[in-house]
DNA sequence: CAGTAATCGAGACGGTACGTCGTGTCTTATG
DNA sequence: CATAAGACACGACGTACCGTCTCGATTACTG
């Protein structure tokens, strides 16, 4: 036996695997510094000490590159693996808001970029939106499983309302703080949880 | 006596008041035809048979002009003045969705434009967002007044979740149809209405 | 009578008539300094303190601009208006060679540029080649008129051989000095003048 | 003993001696098809099924490669070995013009390429210009030897005028036909041949 | 009824970013 | 070593908009 691996290694000079990360780092730093629109493709390439073409070889647009750059930092969303749904939601939201403290402006611009670039919209959904939606959906489904949440709850819509509400604030320049997180979580939970209303409990 | 009013009319040639509307019309038509990003300021001015400066004299940016153009058509939001809150919400939403059928792409781009232009964000909030938020808030407050909705409902957050949910879908390219409207309305109403849960009714 | 001139002055802001000359000057200086290929359109525009578009508005290519720049200096070809043909030819050639001392490299590159750009070739012929050809042709025709040169001399071909010979040297990097001028003039004159051969005179 | 020859055969993989010719062929075909400037080094390499480096290992530039490619076809210049000088010149010229029918555009671009690349200019002179100059010079010298041409004829200049005249036409897009060949030959011969003038013969 | 001043269409102007192209060098694995 | 493939840094290209400016011409009110 001669060759184990089907090692379909493409011929030619392999891509320098230091250049991708250095582009991501450059993108991230420059966007945080000058804002998304204040940064050109040229600037990122120059900062990374790289030719422009080398960038285009990896990402088709500034938006895709910046998305990748900000996905890294946001990837490590720490999520409570169990506990009451409301608590887990709140914890998630507080974490997200903390990230947005720094990344908010960039994320807003990525959402903006997706509005006239269907290809990027797909990337953005797949890389950013859906993972986060899934986290929240999982919390809801766990809640159903352990009896906290109504069996017939409209999970999909609850997720949309949950994320939508803070996108709405984010995109409109509103403040995203702990109080907001609490109120939003409360609102959604009221809609889908089994727990009797407080008012009724008092009766 | 020649003139009654001391009307501080500025000297010089008065503005041609046909030019504003023709710019709005041109903007609207071109954006619907080629998409927001497919239209340049020059194109709009040319289409309206107007110099570029004449446009800048009235609006500071493409976004502001297009906002004005699309505000006109959306201005005549017909809202039920009374009835049950859920019904009124649903009616509003269906109307909005009907408008978005045509204007959706433009609105998405306006939201996008606001993400890196604080000045325009203010205009957009004042002209587009807040009027619509107020309509929904009013419905909620009416609901409280007539006992449909809990006195301590978080109206502001409910509005954010309500609008946010369909913005979320709009910006992500989701479908905005009657079913979505119904499910969203239901979710929000469940959260804030007094009506006892179905489950409890069955007890 | 109200208006005399049909003054078809085009509308819009008139072109700044200082910008053309400053571009020509910049082009000339930079090309002399760094060579034709060492100069980019951007460099010329920057040197002239002008936007790139402003340059493209006046000339369609670097070649056309540089041609114009070097036409100016070469325009003042001083030509003897009478005298013996051979003397006038020689005087012309010496003058040309003096110009080429400085402009030679640029001219060579202009000829080169014309080889893959038919549009520019036309400009180059009209602006550079033909005026110079005409000067020499005129000398020949004067020579015919005053009996120095054969009536049936092939003026066109003589011009081609005259100019061609020194283009040949120019393009091949040969030296263009007074001796060359003398020998070339002699050769051509021998071909077309009436004067009996020296050899025959000696018989 | 395995190998006989001490032949200083370089170590490593020997050059594939099919690759050179296939590059020449690819270059020739592509340049004839798309024009010199319409062809990139990459295209030639790809057409020949060869890596780019392999090309650079053999020729330092596109110009050198294309020169080599077109030298092949032009190498077989058939020249009359004796006869009257004028006849031999004419025959040569007609042959050259026939070649230029096809290769003209490429040759023009090679001349152009030489204008900003001294290294290539040397190659071009050595490979293309001088052999052809020598052919013509030889014809002239033979003419001197057999008494057709004046002993003190300026052969070098005659060659320059002869070649220069048709370069001039070639580079300026003029037509190179039999009539041109005849007129040019006539002009040069008149200048350097011993034959008495027609006018004088009629005396 | 001349003077003043702002508006209008048109287009020049200095900039900036874009995406593509070609060049010559380099770096792999495979002969 | 040579080779095919392709990455890489670089830099020019021509285009598209942008927001501002500068024209002649127009159109009102003012003194």
UniProtKB/TrEMBL annotation, chains A, B, C, D:
The lineage of its organism: Bacteria, Pseudomonadati, Pseudomonadota, Alphaproteobacteria, Acetobacterales. InterPro entries: Homeodomain-like_sf (IPR009057), HTH-type_TetR-like_transc_reg (IPR050109), HTH_TetR (IPR001647), Tet_transcr_reg_TetR-rel_C_sf (IPR036271), TetR_C (IPR011075). The keyword DNA-binding applies. Keywords: DNA-binding, Plasmid, Transcription, Transcription regulation. One of its GO terms (molecular function) is DNA-binding transcription factor activity. This is TetR/AcrR family transcriptional regulator. Residues 40-59 bind DNA. The keyword rRNA-binding does not apply. Pfam families: TetR_C_11, TetR_N. PROSITE patterns: HTH_TETR_2. Residues 17-77 form the HTH tetR-type domain.
């Amino acid at each position: 036996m001669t060759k184990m691996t089907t090692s379909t290694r493409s011929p030619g000079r392999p891509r320098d695997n230091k250049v991708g990360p250095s582009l991501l780092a450059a993108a991230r730093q420059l966007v945080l510094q000058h804002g998304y629109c204040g940064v050109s493709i040229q600037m990122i390439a120059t900062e990374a000490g790289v030719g422009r073409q080398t960038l285009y070889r990896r990402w088709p647009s500034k938006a895709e590159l910046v998305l990748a750059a900000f996905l890294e930092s946001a990837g490590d969303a720490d999520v409570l693996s169990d506990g009451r749904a409301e608590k887990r939601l709140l914890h998630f939201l507080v974490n997200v808001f903390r990230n947005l403290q720094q990344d908010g402006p960039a994320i807003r611009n990525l959402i903006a970029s997706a509005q006239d670039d269907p290809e990027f919209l797909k990337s953005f959904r797949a890389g950013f939106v859906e993972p986060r939606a899934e986290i929240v959906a999982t919390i809801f489904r766990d809640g159903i499983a352990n009896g906290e949440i109504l069996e017939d709850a409209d999970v999909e819509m609850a997720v949309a309302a949950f994320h939508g509400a803070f996108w709405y604030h984010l995109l409109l320049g509103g403040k995203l703080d702990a109080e907001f997180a609490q109120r939003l979580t409360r609102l959604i939970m009221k809609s889908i949880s089994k727990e009797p209303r407080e008012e009724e409990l008092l009766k």
